[in-house]
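General statements about sequence and structure are easier to judge against a single worked case. In the encoding step, the backbone of a single protein was reduced to a row of integers, each denoting a local shape. The record that follows shows the chain in one-letter code together with its fold in token form.
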Amino acid sequence: MPAQKPNNETKRLDALKRHQILDTPAEQAFDDFAFLASTICHTPIALMTLVDSDRQWFKARIGLDAGETPREHAFCAYTILGDGVMVVEDATLDKRFAENPLVTAAPHIRFYAGAPLIDSEGNALGSLCVIDRQPRLLSDEQRKALQALARQIIAQLEVRRTSAELANALTDLKTLSGLLPMCSHCKGIRNDTGYWQSIETYLSTHSEADLTHGICPKCLKHHHPAVYERLHAEGKV
């Protein structure tokens, strides 16, 4: 029985994509979290999962060869609907999963426990879960440990995202620190693709600055001498 989708599904998927982690190579840091979860809960299988629009992808896995499963078969698709650890002590006795292909065939899931990976904006990106091929229980200590590990995974993901955003910002700053081809007459800027743009358009594209327009005293005196004289007499220029 496929799980319903979270109410914030669009926002959740946008957040998942911003982390830029889907389909990335295995990393020791996340493999270690899966190993710790497996060891603490005494299960042969542990996974760090990310629930995409139509699949469940494994960033880290212990005891399982598959790299992903269809979302419609994913236990973690239910886990992301809540904010606590979801426990299934015997999947064959749970109407949500009794006919699930992951239960009736390999890997023959019986026990499942998953802690949702919830980011700072409240988006459940996936889960840290442990799996066994026989029914079992999860102790309070194991439940708390699974939640603690899930929080640490999110901390790791958010540090990575912040670092990537800072790197992109620095790249933009470097773009503006080089030589910019500028027309000596209209002051247009030639961009990286060879097209000419107004300086306003170029700066708004390559920075977060908002531009306003005014007139300097020199140009005011040259183009509008009467206005300049009046303002000058009033001490405003």
In short: The beta strands are 45-51, 55-62, 68-70, 86-88, 111-118, 124-132, 189-190, 196-197.
